[in-house]
Amino acid sequence: MKNILVIGSTGQIGSELTMKLRREIDGGTVVAGYIPGSEPKGELLSSGPSEIADVRDGAALAHIVGKYKIDTIYNLAALLSAVAEKKPLMAWDIQMNGLINILEVARENTCAVFTPSSIGSFGLDTPHKNTPQDTLQRPRTMYGVTKVATELLSDYYFFKYGVDTRAVRFPGLISHVTLPGGGTTDYAVEIFYAAVKGEEFVCPIKPGTYMDMMYMPDALRAAVEIMQADPQRLRHRNAFNIASMSFEPEQLAAKIKEYIPTFKMRYEIDPVRQAIAESWPDNMDDSCAREEWGWYPAYDLDATAVDMIAALRQKLL
Ligand code: SER
Description:
317 residues; alpha/beta; Rossmann fold; UDP-galactose 4-epimerase, domain 1; 2 domains; six-stranded parallel sheet; 12 helices; 14 strands; binds serine
């Protein structure tokens, strides 16, 4: 992994992953791919090249891959779960037609490809506790449908053409840099913004609803380490369960109150997000990732809360 294209470089994951790769990968180029309307700014813009990289335009992707001799593509373009329910055809277009464009470019140019899957790839029939690596995946959301198909299509390109596709199933991601857009787990980010600003938080998810969550530094390290893993050890590829913490809204609120005692939360349930949340695992079993490429999480809920609150105080106050 030397010359890297990050598609979706201004999004929640991409904005931080692009900077991490630029800091950590020696002697290569990390291209920030974006779509018009979400141009890179600040350090993301000044620290390396950027290019318009719309996944729906395969010819443009091929041009960028040739121009920078790209060997690895991080494909982070996606509509998240709640917004994908509002725009299912657009979600399909970006997540599926976009993916096949990327995989074709990768096949023709021998690139490795990382396209994340998600807790959203599971459904109501999946065992919710210690969700196994290999289990039933019958989601009923468009986001979930595209994520299962992403796993299958990525594996297909590996088995049929030898394209080096690998990925993880991300939990809900918590970060203080770029807000997520339209996911079911977004509440676990928004709650910190409200708490630090001294505002009451209106929680859209019912008490008692557990979901896997992860602090962004762990997620970024996973995205890098899976692509650097020894391929001989990988029995799975698309995509590995990874986990670090699972909580329900009451537990998160109680944790925040330890550091911001005046914090208040009330509930106004969003039925769309609630139904999605209930179809997802309570907590995933990540033992395959641990065994096959040495995955481990560094941040639990307490460490996440401490870091989030400190960073958001710097950013917002
Ligand atoms: N965070 C995503 C969502 O809530 C799940 O991967 O849609």
